[in-house]
Recover the amino acids of this structure.
């Protein structure tokens, strides 16, 4: 018998949360929040873990520091964080998207250029792999504006269908990485709490 009362899961807002909830229920875990509730957490019970609804970039921090036992977050954010203090313990067939280089031309730049992105590590690694010279302009959102206002002619951003890029007359030049929802765990909790492994097994069984 597992005791889920004290187990907490950090879940990233947005696409991951929207796609997770019905399948969470398929895994026989209770979800007491209303569909459009602004409540950010609920406590665990003997039937299932509690959950915290947080910004995607904060999921790994909460898990690494032990505030959450397990997290559900995009692999893009796991790679961007470069975390050595968390474990990636499962992949979920949810929120599939891709990180792309985009701009107003379909040609990859061959000289020094500016690129705006919230993905500093991913962008830097991409540039190094392809021996490209660029300065990264850090932006946390509204990246599509950067080429339009002359801030940077290229962006590295995450897309699902690419419709937002098309609406801003931007063209996908290259896919840098594929991304999807994954399960991460606090290493100590993964070893010490069998409930964490059991949650992973149930979610992967029902979501993969």
């Amino acid at each position: 018998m597992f005791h889920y009362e004290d187990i907490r899961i950090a879940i990233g807002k947005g696409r991951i949360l929207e796609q997770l909830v019905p399948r969470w229920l398929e895994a026989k875990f209770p979800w007491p929040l209303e569909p459009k509730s602004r409540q950010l957490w609920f406590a665990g019970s003997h039937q299932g873990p509690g959950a915290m609804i947080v910004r995607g970039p904060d999921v790994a921090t909460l898990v690494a520091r032990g505030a959450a036992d397990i997290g559900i977050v995009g692999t893009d954010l796991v790679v961007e964080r470069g975390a050595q203090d968390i474990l990636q313990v499962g992949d979920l067939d949810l929120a599939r998207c891709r990180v792309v280089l985009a701009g107003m031309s379909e040609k990859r730049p061959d000289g020094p250029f500016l690129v705006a992105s919230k993905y500093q590590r991913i962008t830097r690694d991409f540039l190094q792999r392809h021996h490209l010279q660029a300065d990264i302009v850090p932006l946390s959102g509204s990246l599509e504006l950067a080429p339009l206002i002359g801030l940077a002619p290229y962006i590295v951003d995450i897309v699902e269908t690419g419709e937002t890029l098309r609406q801003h007359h931007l063209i996908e030049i290259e896919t840098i990485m594929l991304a999807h929802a994954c399960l991460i765990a606090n290493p100590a909790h993964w070893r010490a709490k069998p409930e964490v492994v059991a949650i992973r097994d149930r979610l992967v069984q029902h979501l993969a």
